[in-house]
Amino acid sequence: MLLIRCPYCEEERPELEFRNAGEAHIARPTDIAAISDDDFEKFFFIRANPKGIIYERWRHVHGCARFFNAVRDTVSDKFVMTYKAGEPKPSKLPGVSK
Amino acid sequence: MAKAVQKTGISQAERHPALAGRNASAAHVTLSVLEPAERVSLRAPEASLAALSKALGLTLPKKPKTSASKDGRFALWLGPDEWLVIDEAAGDPLGDCGKVKQLHSAVGVSHRNVAIGVTGPGVEATLSAGCPQDLSLTAFPVGACSRTIFGKVEVVLYRTAEDTFRVECWRSFSDYVFTFLSEAARDAAA
Question: Where in chain B are the domains?
Fold first, then answer.
């Protein structure tokens, strides 16, 4: 079982307490009625789906119930780090070469 | 009661508490259904905490996984702005919160939850049958509490003594939790 560090509970918890909530750092357009259909498609449906480092939202649903962001490697399935919702994308990742 | 019903013709509902009369004991663990208690689900921002703590008569804990208790009343930290307040001493925590003017949300959940006491030297093994968290004394000391998962059900665990846990589960899941616990207790070594 994976152990995921919840930034609000400040400790590692078993993955059964968590839910994935999709890609992180996707800002909703401020005036969504004004954007074109193509832009809406990009915002709403198109996701990066990279091989390697991915930024995701997770929710500690059976714990403190808070959403937070996590950096995960889609190849090894390992969590690189987690940080609170609203914090900027970390510029340096611990233990990642690139 | 039966006579009164005949006389008026009005049938009256009888209240049967969930898990009434259930108990189980195994070699190293005893399960008991705890007495009904007053419970409040409390959500509040940082600015309201001082007033709420004063009204409730105990300091709401701010550190994750910690609790506060005073005179039969407990406040369990569930999230950064969420607490479960339990009163076993016939107090009225909901009324106490109602007197607070600062922003907060207090919802009475007394009848939503059922509490099961699990006690004995095999308590950690019993709970670990369904709970994936580390429940050893170093990771989960006396007074620690956490919302977590037990089997397929969400529960709140609260360690009241080295060999005693209070398991709070939703009333409709209580049969599942109690049965799971009694099965686990049979297998639990000290």
Answer: 22-36+112-190, 38-109
Distance from CA of B63 to the nearest CA of A (A): 8
Which residue is associated with the tokens 């479960």?
B84
B64, B80, B154 member nearest A62 (Cβ):
B154
Q: In this structure, which amino acid lies at residue A77? A: D
pLDDT in tens, B95-111: 999 999 999 999 999 99
Give the whole-angstrom CA distance, residue A6 versus residue A74.
Answer: 19
Query: What value of ipTM does the predicted structure carry?
Result: 0.86
Integer Cα distance of B171 and B18 in angstroms: 7
- Do B78 and A65 lie within an 8 Å CB cutoff? yes
Q: CB distance from A11 to chain B under 8 Å?
A: yes
Q: What is the mean pLDDT of residues B153-164?
A: 96
Task: Provide the 8-state DSSP code for B47.
Answer: G
Q: Of 3.40.190.150, 3.30.2270.10, 3.40.50.300, 3.40.50.620, which CATH number belongs to A3-27+39-84? A: 3.30.2270.10
Please give the pLDDT value at position A11: 94
Does the domain at B22-36+112-190 match CATH 2.60.40.420? Answer given as no
pLDDT in tens, A48-93: 999 999 999 999 999 999 999 999 999 999 999 999 999 999 988 8
Q: What's the pTM value of the predicted model, to 2 decimals?
A: 0.88
Please choose, from the candidates B78, B44, B64, B62, the residue with its C-alpha nearest in 3D space to the C-alpha of residue B148: B78
Spatial distance between the Cα atoms of B188 and B170, rounded to a whole number of angstroms:
24
**Least CB–CB distance from B78: residue in A11, A16, A64:** A64
